[in-house]
Amino acid sequence: MRRALLITLIISCNTFLEAQNWAAAGSVWHFNYSNLTFDGYIKIEKIGDTLISGKICDILKKTRIGYNYISSSDDTIYLGREYTRLSNDTVYNFRNNQFFILYCFNAVPGDTWLVAGNNTNCNLTDSIKVDSIGTTVISSTTLRYIWTSPSINIGLQFTGKVVEKIGCIGYMFPEPFCLTDLNEGGPFRCYSDSSLWSFQTGIVPYCDFTNQIAEQSLTNRIGLVYPNPFSKSTTIFLPNQKKNSKAVLKIFNALGTQVAEYSNFRNEQLIEGDFLSDGIYLWIIYNNNNEIISSGKIIKNSQLNLIP
């Protein structure tokens, strides 16, 4: 009896410790979100557990929160739920009535697996491969990470750095790569859970930051980018920005590190992509008072030239 109880306790403890590396109690993620009419963020939070095909799964609620420039009002939009589970260092995502591997933290370079999208306008599944692995220290905690890239197609935007507890730094779930501005969210802003463990990339001042400057007109706020995604170069254009009015354009990677600065931005800027690795980048334009006047995302994908 004691032996059986001891085995049960060991299993329970291992399950508990394993769960802390993904979707711990009170887990909340924030990711950037912006398009031509909306600026804000995606909030993903664990709200409970459920049973799917005999497996205990995390219930993750997705909400889009921010400012709608068309209605000139704050918006909160429910985006649905995702279901994940962790087993033996592998995070699974339940989509299309089956479990797909989302992340695998014991993977080695060269490993591949299929991930599932949720948009019928693009590939329903795509393959990614592991390029490198390692460890990083975040908030005094040593965490494993993997770097991934497309293996077969480029239908889904779901590559880059993936970190334990946090997930993909671009966006938590596979996103369509075939149409501009169809994506659900990204890049990653911050994470926290009930254990008080937290991390912020610094790409925004705080987790639920939004650019709510309603008195500025829509045309002054919108930055246009073409092409996006791009393989070699792209241009960021800000309509109604006077050519004799100086501003500063800064580009940040998904970890919040500034990778470029154009201090003499007038109303358009050509971005040569030679110095950028494939992935998602945040661009922000500041006026002379260091106030944000426009922002958005650019996506570098060198494989676009390979599309027939």
Give your account of this protein's structure.
This protein is mostly beta strands and 308 residues long. It contains two helices and 22 strands. The termini are far apart. β21 (279-286) and β22 form a beta hairpin.
Write a concise synopsis of the structure shown.
The chain is mainly beta. The protein is built from two helices and 22 strands. It has helices spanning 2-19, 218-221, and strands at 28-34, 38-52, 55-68, 73-87, 90-95, 98-104, 112-116, 125-138, 141-150, 156-157, 160-163, 167-168, 175-176, 188-192, 198-200, 224-226, 233-237, 247-252, 258-265, 268-272, 279-286, 292-300.
Q: Please tally the helical runs, counting DSSP H or I stretches of 4 or more residues.
A: 2
Beta content comes to: over 45%
Average pLDDT metric? 81
Question: CA-to-CA gap between the ends?
Answer: 66 Å
What percentage of residues falls in helices of 4 or more residues? under 10%
- What pattern of helices and strands is seen along the backbone? HEEEEEEEEEEEEEEEHEEEEEEE
Low-confidence stretches: 1-19, 213-220
Largest sheet, in brief, is:
8 strands, antiparallel
The value of Rg in angstroms is: 20 Å
Indicate the structural class: mainly beta
Total number of beta strands = 22
Shape: globular
Strand order of the largest sheet: 6-5-4-3-2-1-14-15
Q: Give the tally of structural domains.
A: 2
